[in-house]
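Quarterly update from the structural biology core.
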Amino acid sequence: MEYHDEDTVLVRETSRSSLTPETRLHWAVEGGTLKVKYAASGARISSTLQKDLTVTLPGKSGAQSAVISATTGDVHIRGGSWRTLDIKAVTGSAYVTADTAEVLNARCTTGDINVSVINAGSMELHCTTGDVILCADSFDSIKARSTTGDIKAALPEDPGFAAQLSATTGKVSCTIPHTEEGKTYKVGDGSKNVEMKVTTGNITLS
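Predicted structure, tokenized:
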């Protein structure tokens, strides 16, 4: 998903092979909500079919909400302000760059989650097999988990946060000035909540 300065919504489809009416994208507007499907409902998709869908939204239309689900393939969000952004990817990674995200939920079964947000509200990021990489200039709360993979986060020192960091098999590292009480790392005034947990992997906070 991308943004532009026009007042129109563009949906673009590119493919390396010819498409049929069943394998072409399908879209509809229902109750003011744009719904885009990778292909027709019930269509049999060959594993050799490779195509990309790009949705371009008006950049001046204010905060948007989106629910994105991908079975095989990566999800890219480039820019914009979001009230709610919900991403689910089975085999593929999620890449998010945004100005604002009031609520951001991303879940990948096999793949990485890479998020860079200037102003964030609450974020929940969960990988089964993959890394979570996060950068935020400001945020309210963060929950990040990876069963097999690393978590790397760059977070602001001001005003501060209290982070619960747990690695069952792996190391925890925090390079930001902090105090420690058990598994709690307090930075600044400790006013924001952070929870990060990995089963097999490392946690790096900077």
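The CA atoms of residues 179 and 193 lie 15 Å apart.
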